[in-house]
# Entry
Amino acid sequence: MDTRQWMSVLLCVATALMLFVVVLSYQRRHMPAARTMICLMVAASFYAIGYAFEILSEDLMSVKLSYQLEYLGIPFVSGFWLLIVFQFTGFAARYRRRVTFAVFLIPMATYLLYQTNDWHHLVYQQFYPNLNGTVPVYNTVKGSWYSVHAVYNYTILLFGILLFIPMYLRAVPIVRKQIVILVVGAAGPILFNIAYMFNKEIDFTPLGFALSGLVYAWGIYRFRLLRLTPLAYAKMFDTIRDGVILLDYENQIVSRNGAATEVYPELSDMGEASIAAKERLAATPALLGRLEETDCLDARFPLERVINERTRHYICSLTYIYDTGAAPIGKMIMLSDVTELKENEDRLREKSERLIQLNAFKDKLFTVMAHDIRDPIALLVSLTELLESEANGPDLTMNEVLPEIKKQVRETFDLVDNLLDWYRSQNGRIAFRPLTWNLQQVARQALSFAGARAAMKQIQIEERIDEQLAVSADKEMLDLIFRNLLANAVKHTGIGGRIEVGAALEENKVTVYVKDNGSGIDEETVKLLRRDEMFFKEPGFASGEDGGEMRFGLVLTREFLRMHGGSLWFESRLGEGTTFSFTLPGFASHAGKAVNADRGRTAVVINESGVG
# Structure
C-alpha cells in the first residue's frame, strides 16, 4: 500500500470517527451546544473526505472537484468551534444572532470567493503538478484572501481559548475537564495545520480531526460533555436559593451566587477578582473563626445577621473541597435561610405556652366553680327549703335567713359576671376600641350603679373629678374597671363609712383613685394581689380552708388597664382603709387650661337616699 492509499484510509477512518460523534451529539440534540457540535463534525467530515478524494485524484479536474467537497467544511470549522465556546461560556448571550452573523461573515466570503476563484484568483493563484510524485498530486500558490482566512482561523481559535481561561479558573472540577476536552479537541487540527504551514506539502489537518473525534467521543462518555454545559453549571450555581460562597485554600473568596450577596451585601461589588474572606465576612466573627480552624472538618452551625432591621436566621454548612489528593483545595459555604421556620417556631412556642397557661386556668377554674358556684347554689337550695319549712315560724328566722340568701346570690352573680368578662377577653371577643370620654360623666354613671348598695350600708361617696378631664379608653372596659373598684370599696367599707373617687392630670396621663376608710387589706392578701395570676382567693383558700372568697375582678381590671397602656396599684393599712389608683391616657378638654386636682372640683355625695 503506497502513501496515497494509507493516507486516504486514515482520512476515511477520521471521517467515520467524526460521524460517530455526530450520532452521539444527535442523541443530545435538545442542547444548543450539541447541535453546534453536529455542524462542526459534519463540516470537518467534508474536509476529511474531500481531502481523501484529493489524494486519490490523478488529474487537475478531479483535484478541483475534491476541493469543492473540502470547502463545504474548511471555511466553517473554526466558526462552529467558536460558537460552542460562546455557548459554554455564555459570551454575548443577548446578542447571539448578531455575533453568529459576525463570526460567519468571513467564512461565507471565503466559500463564495473559492466558488468564483477562476475569475479573480484571490484564494488560489495557481495549481501546478507536484514533480516529486508524492502527496499531493498538485500543489497550489495561495492568494491574498487565503492569508486573510488563515489569520481569521487562528484569531478566533485564540479568542476561544482566552474565553475559556477565566471560566476554567473558577469552574468546578467536572466543568474544568469539559473545558480541557474542548481545547484538546481543537488543538489537534491546529497543530497539524501549523505543521502544514511550514512544510507546504502534505496537509495533515484533516487527520487532526480524527484526534478531535476521539477526544470528543471520550468526553461525551466519560465527562458528560454536551449533557450540561459550564454555562448551565454557572446558571445552576447562581439560581440556587441557598447562598453559596466558594473559597480557595488561602480563604480568598473566588465566587459566590446571587443568594449569597443577599446574605452578605458586602460581596455585591467584588466583581471577578478574589478577595480575602476576613474583609467581606467580618460582620460574622463566628464564621471567620470556623474558616481559620486547621482540623479540616465539615461543620454545620446556626448563623444570624441583621438585614434591613430584621434579624435573619441561617443554617451555615462549611464543606471542604478536595481534588484527587488528601489535602483540601478550597472550601464551600452554604447558607440556608431558616428565618421563616425560626419565627414560626417562636410563634408556636408562644402559643404552646399560652395553651399551657389556659389549660392551667381551665383546671383551676373548674376547681373554683366546684367550690364557689356549686356550694353557694347548694346553700341557696337549703335556705329555700328552710324558708319553706319555717314559713309559719317567727319573724326572727326570716330576718336571719333572708340577708344570707341575698349575700350568697349577690356574690354568685358577681362571680359569674366577672368570669364571663374574663372569658370574653381571653378569647378575643372583647374588641379594644379606645375613644375619648369625659371622665366625670363615666364616673358618675358607675357611681349611680354602686349607689344603691352603698345606701344600704349608709356609705357616703364623694366624687371629686374635674369636668374638663377626658380620657382615651374603651367604654366597656372603663365601666368594668370602675364597677369592680367601687364594688370592692363598698364591700369592705363598714356601715356609715366613706368612699372618695377623684382624678388628677399629670402630663399626658390621668391618675384616678378610689379611696375608702374600710377594713383594709391584710398582708397575705396583699401578697396575692401583687402576684400576676389569672385569679386567686383570699386567705382561707390559700391556707387550705374553704371559706375564702375568690378575688377575680381586680385581676381583670389590671389586665384591661394594661391594654390601655396604664397600670394599677394600691395602698392599704389594716383597719384604716385602702386606696386603689390607676392611670389612663388623658388630657384637659380645653387646651392651655391647667387642671388641678384640688381646685375647681365638684363633690357629689351619695348617702342613704342615693345620688345627691
